[in-house]
Amino acid sequence: MPQDVPCLIAAFVCRSRNEKTLPETDLVPLRSIIKLTGQLLGRHSLSFASGFLSRRIIDLLDLSWTAVVPAGRKRTSRWIPAAGKIIVEETYDAVMAPDFVGQCRSRTGPPPAPAFLWREDFSPYIDWAQNVSQRESMYDIIVIGAGPAGISMGVEARASGVPPERLLLLEKASEHSFTLKKYYPDEKLVTANYKGFEAVCTGVMCMTDLPKNETITFLDQAIRANEIHVRYDETVYRIHKHVSEQRFSIYTDKGEYETMVIAISIGILGKPNKPGYKIPPALRDRVLFDVTSREIAGSKVLVVGGGDSASEYCQYLVQKGNAVALSYRKDAFTRMNDINLQSILALAEAGHVEVLYGTNILQVKDARGKPEVYFAPPHDRPREFDFVVYALGGTTPHNFLKMIGIQFDGDEPTLKDGYETNVAGMFLIGDLSAGPKGGSIIWAFNSANTAMKKICRDYLHAGG
Questions:
Q1: What is the reported pLDDT for 231?
Q2: Stretch 332-348: mean pLDDT
Q3: C-alpha angle with apex 106: 103 to 107, nearest 5 degrees?
Q4: Phi/psi class of residue 126: alpha, beta or left (left: φ > 0; alpha: ψ in -120 to 50)?
Q5: Which of 50, 316, 322, 339 is the most exposed place for a label (fewest CB within 10 A)?
């Protein structure tokens, strides 16, 4: 039983992996497990088991426990969170038996009661165990997008031996295959052969021409039969590739995830929201709805919006050496996640971004080839910029892909063998890998199979 204690503790932690705390219903049995560990195994085994816990959870546990030692003495141990360290100290309420002294690094003779035995910083143990726990909790594959290609990627991963708990699909819509369900007429066939792509299946997933409802049923069954976990209504806004190891951090509006490999299967459709006033046609190259469709550097730029995209655009433009202003109609930011909020506030405090709170744009005029922006009172003075970038919601796949570091050759992403991008471990499947013509549903299935072979060879089974 003792050797299973770390696993029991890890189970509690994994249950709330994406939470910053544990519910009281978990804290109660967790206290009991750790106390029992301390009584049975001593401090070194205790440090390994408790290493699976975060310092925040250790604070919440408020641990102290008593163990009976030789000669009937009692030993009391407690955690002491202090100055960023986790300290354990032990005292005895009576004189220790001589044969137990050596085990606790005490003196040769029995100490007076109560005796202070030792005090040790357990932070190194905890940091080591938390690193082990992080690797164990990291996904093998996270798929962004739960359309036919994303679902097929999940099926291919399961067929390749990836267990359900190491695989995750993230979908911003409330259901899978949202584009298919929304834009395909009910009576229209979902054709296997589309735009000249031959309907030859190379992987696990395969279908013939089917009505829309039967196609949806086929995909429903694929998810259920393969135990594929999909998180719906969750939007990815940032992906960070770690330099020192093969690991990605994925940030969404609902949580943060770690994975070894990413497969992106978002569709090619995308339409940014636009303002209610008209933009002069002559300013088409100066008034933009993303920051990647043309190079913007060393310029005066106005970003319009107050959400996460607005903050991310400002951060991106500042890095390119632009003088950036941000127009937001409210008096404070309320829609940004914490990371983007702190970033924009820090840029404003450093003077890199001028935040124009409470500003409403009435119109944009052509001033000698540059946009001149007119604000509603009390901001009556018009201002001229080199570029205006709107971040009013909605996005294009190209903008998203460029923002996360994927290189393009003209209008098409640069792909290597297995549809891998220039970012190691990041793959594009489905329409994103099919070129300008787009792809059929069989292309979506086959692209997942091709990518999965590369993933198995270079990442999951490397060195195996």
A1: 96
A2: 89
A3: 125
A4: alpha
A5: 339
